[in-house]
Every structure is written in C-alpha cells, then in structure tokens.
Amino acid sequence: MNWIPLQSESQLEDILKNSSHRPQVIFKHSTRCSTSALVKNRLERAPQPQDKEIEFYYLDLLSHRPISNKIAETFRVHHESPQVLIIRNGKCIYDESHLGISMDEIADRAA
Question: Around Cβ 29, how many Cβ atoms within 10 Å?
Fold first, then answer.
C-alpha cells in the first residue's frame, strides 16, 4: 500500500482537483483504536486494484483532527473512525466505516 500522508488542509484542494482525473481515497485512522488497526491491516494486506489509478490518502486522526473536521465539512459526511471516503469529481461518492471497510468494495465503488 502506497499511502500518501494527509497532513495539511491544503492537500484537500489537491484531492478535489485530482478527483476529476482519478478516484481519491481517504482513510481516516485512529492509532489508539483496535478496530481501526484491524481495518488498516486488512487494507494493506489486500490485493491492490491493478486496473485503476487510485490515490490512497492516510489521515492520522490523533495528529490531525482539524483536517478530519474539514473533511467532514467539505464532503458533508459524519465523522467516523475508522472511515474511508472515495472522492470523484469533487464529491464524496462513497463512505464507509468500521468493519464495513474492504478493499473489494473500494475497488468496486471507485470503478
């Protein structure tokens, strides 16, 4: 898994811009949550979608909570942890949380 660390609000503008060319995935992770660790591990061990150009962003919620708040505001989603969002054409087209997160679902929804 080639995570792109999401560490500044200005990166959200890049995500919005790039989402018109390829799907952008944001994974919001709490380093203190065992469910979040389990989901992160499952994503990292799963086969990566080979036929899709997807950029995967990783947000450490404990270090960057204001960015999480900005994501909720920008994409009009309720904050969850762990949570995955797929951004396409500037809009959140899919969000899932907790054990509902899977690489297969991400690949299907990003298609």
Answer: 21
Residue range 86-99: mean pLDDT, rounded = 97
Q: 18-51 pLDDT, tens per residue?
A: 999 999 999 999 999 999 999 999 999 999 887 6
Structure tokens at 85: 């969002």
Residue 29: give its domain's CATH number.
3.40.30.10
Find the domain containing 44 and state its range. Answer: 3-110
Kindly give, in sequence order, each residue whose CB lies less than 8 Å from that of residue 41, ignoring residues fewer than 6 positions away.
Answer: none
Domains contained in the chain, number: 1
Which secondary structure element, helix H or strand E, spans residue 25, and what is its range?
strand 24-29
DSSP code, position 98: G
Average pLDDT, the chain: 95
